[in-house]
Amino acid sequence: MPDAYAVSTYQGRAIEADAADQAWRALWEHSPQRSPFSALAYQQAGASLLDLELHLVAVHDDTGWLAAALLPVRRLGPLRLVHPLPFSPFSALLGTAPPDEAAVHHGTSPWQTLIATLARRYDDVSLLLPPTVADVRFLSWQRWSVRPLYTYRLAFQDTAEVQARWSASTRRLYRREAARYSVQEAPEALDAVVDLCRQAYARHNRSMLLTREHLTRLGHRLQQAGMARTFIARNRSTRSIDAGVCVLHDAQTAAYWIAGSNPGGAMTVLLGHLLPWLRDDGLHTFDFVGANTPSIAEFKRRFGATLLPYYQARLTPHPLLRALRLLGRSPR
């Protein structure tokens, strides 16, 4: 495939020293792949906390940047491994537009140049593509393994009344339980929300991939940066926090990021208050962040959100790592 574009790579302090941070932010502002998880501040906070390098690879021509990737990189001796930040549903991948079918057919898409560059420069690459990258043939045709995942998204502009699209059972549960809880924004309760989240993961036999300390520190850092807000539902009788969510957000999208609840209706009541608040704050979309566990997916479906596919893509160019991966022993 001929390279029709130039490629620039930055890492560490060079991202800011060479003004690449400004170019990333400019692309992020208008990219269809924009999300809170691709914000430079989020990726920098996560990489710093986990002692990872942060690399930026940009594909451009005379008109400017066309596609770019912000990559957390872990060194394993001489090897360079690229994996999404833990607790992140999407990698930081941006383009001026989704992959164009005709350009993909002719091998001239900037997305093809981007993934070819990653294949040459890194030894193991795992990506979680934003849902707006729906045509993934440019990856599978280059021998990347690709598998589908799903999330639910709620568009606030679809209805003036947030509850109008809820299932009947969810509306009944909300009406029955609403008086039991006081719902409020409570940034000081983040630690308790992390604990509820950890308990929820344990009930579903799932691993969080982040320690309690790391997740709490990341949440506090993003709250201080204005990118995260914590909300709780407190039981009026027991005064216990029965549900909580730390919402990651930009000016357009809010994400159900760190969330957990005790069994019962507390989370339904919390969301019944939270979703109108976010809409009234000017946000356009609420991403429920994943619909890949049956019971959790059903809970999210009942809020009237739209099911969207997205894709995990992986390529392991290094032969030893590829052999270990086939044996189920690849490093993480």
Q: How is this structure best described in words?
A:
Helix 3 runs antiparallel to helix 9 (212-224), helix 7 crosses helix 10 and helix 8 (190-203) packs across helix 9. The chain contains 12 helices and 13 strands. By secondary structure, the protein is α+β, with helices and mostly antiparallel strands. 40% of the residues are buried. It folds into 2 domains: 6-149 and 310-326, Aminopeptidase; 167-303, Gcn5-related N-acetyltransferase (GNAT) (Aminopeptidase), CATH 3.40.630. The longest helix is centred in the C-terminal third of the chain and has 15 residues, at 266-280.
Q: What is the compact description of this entry?
A:
By secondary structure, the chain is of the alpha+beta class. The protein contains twelve helices and 13 strands. The protein folds into two domains: 6-149 and 310-326, 3-Layer(aba) Sandwich (Aminopeptidase), CATH 3.40.630; 167-303, Aminopeptidase (3-Layer(aba) Sandwich), CATH 3.40.630.30.
